[in-house]
Structure formats: structure tokens, C-alpha cells
Write a structure and sequence with these properties.
The complex is a heterodimer of chains A (222) and B (382). Chain A is mainly beta and 222 residues long. Chain A is built from one helix and 13 strands, in the order αβββββββββββββ. In chain A, 43% of the residues are buried. Chain B folds into four domains: 36-153 and 165-176, Immunoglobulins (Immunoglobulin-like), CATH 2.60.40; 184-296, Sandwich (Immunoglobulin-like), CATH 2.60.40.2360; 298-328; 332-382, Membrane-bound Lytic Murein Transglycosylase D, Chain A. Helices cover 20% and strands 42% of the residues of chain B. The chains are: A mainly beta (222), B alpha+beta (382).
């Protein structure tokens, strides 16, 4: 009985004073608090919004073929979401776009390479660009899934997905993924997943498991 | 003895307090704004847009001093590259920046940064001064470039697929004064049905020599004019570019015929510029309307069929009742009320319900009948 009474007293004491922060009053006491201004950013994050260290989009593997074929992939998955944050840093709007690190980039391997921005016969033949490679990559943000991030009061109003487009050297070097209008949330975060990527692979492209290409995902305050 | 008990009680109280304090101590949560990026270091009070991008009107040959505040709000120390680049139109007419590897010929070449690489601890920032030197040969109108902030990363060995680097850019707008033309043209408006939605695609071309902040509005209405959904917002339409937006309209639940209209408003006055409205010459352009049909959702279809069936049934009942009343009016005969008649006795004599008599003759409660008055009754059998 006595022990119960003590426990109750302790609980009351903890309840009353345990949730407070204690300071010793003095003539010079001073509270300071700084919240640094945020910046507009785009990142690739996992399901708990932690940045992915070295993000990459893996294309589905295809077999060797004597005909031109298409490999597909998904940009923005549950474990690698495209995540945009605007902490009151771009009130007039922003654009997220994707481009190759260089317009002359190729899908590179130890063996033979292939192109990502040659539109000749939809990437199945080599065109007029400087290289002698064929292949074309198409990105379709309009089919992606746009949603609010962890922000409690955000909406996707004013945020639009880009059109399906294929890279074309010198003509389409950058593809718009997402745009935020001035009417979109000034303080907000959004995530985009399920953006389909397709890549035409030239006929008789040698089998290899080490094809890679460097792409840059940019967000720009406009 | 008593003293000992009090002391023991206080000991228990203290231990209990410590124990429960550990359990119920409130946690402190950090506010994580994340990201690596930047902001203009010296925004101007006369143009709120300068809080997020760099906007300057500079004569050919002028030099402008500026600064970019590079911020590391990530949880880690970062080595950051800062560089200038020209702008490039992205698909849909959106603004994008060229790559570090690309040759600079416009604003990207006019910018000289004091540092190209810095190391920032988590939660810190540094202002990098830079100058914009407009060449004497710069043409009149708007020129665009970017200041870009990108983490310096070593390539991960063995990584395959499309390897992504991430960067944040700030637009740099330099307008060389002279004969400024601000003009937009509506190019088209289309609608593409998708599985669960429609894509509304308005197209707008900037035929002037500066970018224009256009208020784009796409309004979809029900057949009878009530607004279903408004899309749009203010978007910059870049010099010489055609902008296109994909406004997604979820398939309306009830289905039916709908109409979408596209309109644009912009400031055509020469005094207007990026972030500054003159408010003197607001121009509105209105495009064609698109009528389209949307099939109802399955649940809506069931509800609609049910409501339609109820309406048809009601109509049928009403028409049948009207037809019957018409027949009665034509076939029934006049009867003069005699002393002692009441509605029930007449109804009984005629073989009909007293309610029908009341209804046909539009009698009011308490349905009293006066001798000499005439009412309609069914014809009596011979």
C-alpha cells in the first residue's frame, strides 16, 4: 500500500516537473535558437527519406539479339525515390530535369559502347552525330506517381510532371522531370516514383554486364 | 523511529522519481531541412525574386558584383563544387542548366567565381563572391545562366546502370536594356486520355526577347458550366521558347461531357521584368475550348442507373395517374347533392373509395357537402 502511494507520488512529480526543461535563473540567463535557412534541393532517398549514397537506375537485362531491342527501367522506386524539397527557397517556381553529364556520353562498357541520344530510326541506327554508335533513351515522367513527401500540409497543386521525351543530341539534351509553379507550396516536399525509362539497344550489341552512363539530376530555382 | 521512517520514505521517493524520470524524459527532435544548395547572398528589397535567383539589368560592358551563399544542411561534411553554366531549354520549354563539361558562351561565360570548390561542415554555409561581366557585344534582351552547386564525389567502382549525380542551380538573369519586346502567343491546346486520367496540354510561345512570367489557367467545367477543376499557376516562358505543361485531370467520378478552356495573362509593359510587374498592360489571351466525354466510374454507373430507374418509375407512375384522372374527368357524370348525402354514403353508393371522390372533386377537409352542390361521380349502372 505504502509502495503504491510512493509510486503515485513519484509519477505525479515526474508528470508535473519531468517534462519541463530546467534552467537556473540568474541575472544573465539567455536563450538562443537558430534555424538555418533551407535550400531548394533534389535528392534520391530511400523509404525513410534518407539519402541514397550512390544512386543508380538499373535497367532490366535483355539477351543478345540480332535485331534492335528495348531495355526498360524505372527511375524512382520505393527504395530510390526522387525527392524534392522547397523550404521557402524558390517561391516563384523550380524545375527538375535530367541530362547526361556530357552530350557526347555513351553507355560505356569494357567492350563495345552504345549511344543514348541518337534518334535515327528511334535509336536503331547510327545518325549524324560525331560518334558511330546507335541507341536512344526515352524518359516518361508523365506516367510517374507524384505524391506529397512527409510534409504535413503540402499538396501537389502547381507541381506538374514532364512529358515523355527521348534524348536527341543537340536538340533534346535535357528532359524535364518535374516543374513547380509559383502557385505550388512555398514550403513543401514531394516525391516522384515510377518514371519509366526505355533504351533502344542496337542489333548485335555485344553482351556485357558493366554498361553504365552518367546522368545528372538537377533542380533549378527559376 | 519516526525520523527513520520519513528518511526512508524520502529515499523511496527519490529513487522512484529518478526511475520514472528516465522513462518519461521528453525526447528532443531535430528539424532536418536537408539538402545541399544555395541562395543569393544579397537579395534586394525592390525585387522579392532576388531571394531565390539572381536578377540584374546591366548595360553592355557593365560589371556586377554578387555572391552566392552555399549551404550544407545535410548531416555530413561535404566537398562542394560551385560553377557557372549557360542555360538550356529543357523539354516542355522548361528552364535547365548546361553541364559542367559544356562550353560556355552566354551568361555562364560572364560569371567569374572566387572559388570553385569548398568544404562545408554539416549545418554550415559560406558565401562565395562572384562577378558578372557583360561583354560589349552582348545583344539587347534577356540572357540566362546558372550558378550550380554539386557535391564532389568519386566514382564508385563496379557500379552499373544509369549513375546519377545531383546538383542544385540558381538561375542568373541578365537583361541588357534596349528595345524590349514582351509577347506571348497561344500555340495549341490538346487533351490526351490516359487510363485513369486526362492530360491537358496547353502550349505557349514567347516571341519576344525577354522571358515572361505567365499566369497559365486551364479550367475544366461540367456540361452546365460548374467548375470541376482549375489547373495552372505562374510559369516563366523563356525567350524564344515554346512552353508546354501536362496538367493531369483525374477521371471525373460521375462521368459525362466536360469542357476545358485555356487562358493566359501576362504583363506586356516594357517596365515589367523578372519578379517585377508594371501592372499597366495586363494582357489576356484565350484559347479554344475542348469538349470531351468521360465514362463514369463503375460505382457511379451503378448509382446513375439506379437513380435513372427510380426517375423512370416515378415518371411512369405520374403519367399513369394523369391518364387515369383524364379518363375519370371524361367518363364521370355530374351529381347534385341531396339533403342527407355525405361523401362516404355517395362513395358507397357509387362503389368507389371516398378518397378518390375527394381527389377528383378537389374537396377540402372536412369534406362537407351542401344540398344543391354538384360533384363528379362514376356513372351509375342502369
Amino acid at each position: 500500500m505504502k509502495l503504491n502511494v510512493m509510486a503515485v507520488i513519484c509519477l505525479v512529480l515526474v508528470g508535473v516537473v519531468g517534462t519541463a526543461v530546467y534552467v537556473f535563473a540568474s541575472a544573465t540567463s539567455n536563450f538562443t535558437q537558430t534555424i538555418n535557412s533551407g535550400t531548394l534541393s533534389v535528392d534520391i532517398v530511400d523509404g525513410s527519406y534518407s539519402p541514397v549514397g550512390s544512386p543508380a537506375v538499373a535497367m532490366n537485362s535483355v539477351g543478345f539479339s540480332f535485331s534492335c531491342q528495348t531495355a526498360t527501367g524505372t527511375f524512382g522506386t520505393a527504395s530510390e525515390q526522387i525527392y524534392v524539397q522547397n523550404p521557402d527557397a524558390a517561391d516563384a517556381g523550380w524545375t527538375v530535369s535530367i541530362a547526361a553529364a556530357t552530350t557526347t556520353a555513351v553507355w560505356d562498357s569494357a567492350g563495345t559502347d552504345f549511344d543514348f541520344n541518337d534518334p535515327t530510326t528511334s535509336g536503331c541506327a547510327d545518325g549524324a552525330d560525331a560518334d558511330s554508335l546507335s541507341g536512344q533513351m526515352t524518359i516518361n515522367p508523365s506516367g510517374g506517381t507524384l505524391a506529397e513527401g512527409p510534409c504535413l500540409s503540402c499538396s501537389t497543386t502547381g507541381v506538374t510532371k514532364g512529358s515523355s521525351s527521348a534524348f536527341n543530341e543537340g536538340t533534346t539534351d535535357s528532359i524535364t522531370v518535374l516543374s513547380g509553379a509559383s502557385g505550388s507550396d512555398d514550403i513543401g516536399n514531394w516525391k516522384l516514383t515510377d518514371v519509366a525509362i526505355s533504351q533502344t539497344i542496337p542489333a548485335e550489341q555485344p553482351a556485357a554486364s558493366d554498361y553504365d552512363i552518367n546522368l545528372t539530376l538537377s533542380i533549378v530555382a527559376i | 523511529m519516526c525520523k527513520y521512517q520519513i528518511s526512508k520514505a524520502f529515499q523511496r521517493l527519490f529513487v522512484g522519481f529518478l526511475f520514472f524520470s528516465f522513462i518519461f524524459t521528453p525526447s528532443a527532435y531535430a528539424i532536418e531541412y536537408g539538402g545541399l544548395g544555395g541562395r543569393p547572398a544579397y537579395p534586394r528589397s525592390d525585387n522579392p525574386r532576388t531571394e531565390s535567383i539572381f536578377v540584374h539589368t546591366l548595360e553592355a560592358g557593365a560589371v556586377q558584383e554578387e555572391g552566392v551563399k552555399v549551404v550544407n544542411n545535410t548531416a555530413e561534411k561535404k566537398t562542394v563544387m560551385i560553377y557557372a553554366a549557360d542555360s538550356t531549354p529543357s523539354t516542355d520549354g522548361a528552364f535547365a542548366c548546361k553541364q559542367l563539361s559544356e562550353t560556355k558562351t552566354d551568361v555562364g561565360a560572364w560569371i567569374k567565381l572566387e572559388k570553385s570548390e569548398i568544404v562545408l561542415e554539416s549545418g554550415t554555409n559560406e558565401t562565395i563572391p562572384f562577378t558578372i561581366s557583360v561583354p560589349q557585344s552582348a545583344s539587347v534582351g534577356e540572357h540566362n545562366g546558372c550558378i550550380l552547386i554539386q557535391e564532389k564525389k568519386e566514382k564508385v567502382e563496379g557500379q552499373t546502370g544509369a549513375i546519377l549525380s545531383i546538383r542544385t542551380g540558381l538561375r542568373v538573369v541578365v537583361t541588357v536594356p534596349g528595345e524590349i519586346t514582351r509577347k506571348l502567343e497561344l500555340v495549341g491546346f490538346s487533351l490526351t486520355p490516359k487510363q485513369d486520367s486526362f492530360l491537358l496540354n496547353p502550349l505557349l510561345k514567347n516571341t519576344g526577347n525577354v522571358s515572361i512570367d505567365a499566369d497559365v489557367s486551364v479550367i475544366t467545367r461540367y456540361f452546365f458550366g460548374l467548375v470541376l477543376k482549375k489547373h495552372g499557376g505562374q510559369y516563366p516562358v523563356l525567350r524564344g521558347e515554346t512552353s508546354n505543361w501536362n496538367f493531369e485531370l483525374a477521371r471525373p467520378f460521375w462521368g459525362g461531357w466536360y469542357r476545358s478552356t485555356f487562358a493566359v495573362e501576362y504583363d506586356q509593359n516594357q517596365e515589367a521584368s523578372v519578379g517585377v510587374k508594371s501592372g499597366k498592360e495586363l494582357t489576356r489571351l484565350e484559347g479554344n475550348s475542348i469538349w470531351f466525354f468521360s465514362a463514369p466510374a463503375p460505382l457511379a454507373l451503378v448509382i446513375e442507373i439506379f437513380v435513372l430507374a427510380v426517375l423512370v418509375a416515378c415518371c411512369w407512375l405520374w403519367m399513369r395517374s394523369r391518364k387515369r384522372m383524364k379518363q375519370i374527368q371524361q367518363q364521370w357524370v355530374e351529381y347534385e347533392i341531396e339533403q342527407g348525402d355525405d361523401i362516404q354514403s355517395i362513395a358507397k353508393e357509387c362503389g368507389v373509395s371516398w378518397k378518390l371522390l375527394v381527389k377528383v372533386n378537389k374537396l377540402k377537409p372536412p369534406y362537407a357537402l351542401r344540398a344543391g352542390e354538384t360533384i363528379k361521380v362514376p356513372p351509375l349502372n342502369e
